[in-house]
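In response to reviewer comment 3 from the previous cycle, which asked for concrete evidence that the modeling workflow produces usable outputs, we include below a single protein chain processed end to end. The sequence was submitted unchanged, and the resulting structure tokens are shown without manual editing.
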Amino acid sequence: MHEPTKSTPAHSNPATDPKRELLRHSLATLAYRGGKALRNVPDNFAEFQAGVGVRTPGQILAHLGDLLDWALSIATGKRTWHDSQPLPWDREVERFFAVLQKFDDFLASRESLQSPIEKLFQGPVADALTHVGQIGILRRLAQAPSKGESYYDAEIAMGRVGADQAKPKREF
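The workflow returned the following structure tokens.
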């Protein structure tokens, strides 16, 4: 068993730590928003080039998978970074949701975190949210926008981190 971190005191149950639950809700939010940005994209969207030096959506999606792999590696105390080459879009989407599931499963377990939760949020999780937004912007530039939505009203549930998400309640 690993030593508890500041985020997981020895006397608490890691699986019900309020900070850990908030991070899990953040992952569910990432899954919901990411799912919306990644679904129903046009053919060749992965290669869309917005300008010189701008990552393609496929490169951003591969980076998202790398960020989430990195987050899990930090959480488990095996900090490792990989720079992956983009897979075909559908496979990268599967990878995104698979690593979200692995990370959420770890957070839902009784395993001790090897990093403060705040660091996991401020680094890889916040970065992933930013990149999902970039994919949304690139969809608009590629003339394939997804509908806007009140994310406050969205049905986002801790633990729901797969591709199967609730239907939007209030799109505009």
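The mean pLDDT is 93. We consider this sufficient to address the reviewer's concern, and the full set will be provided in the supplementary archive.
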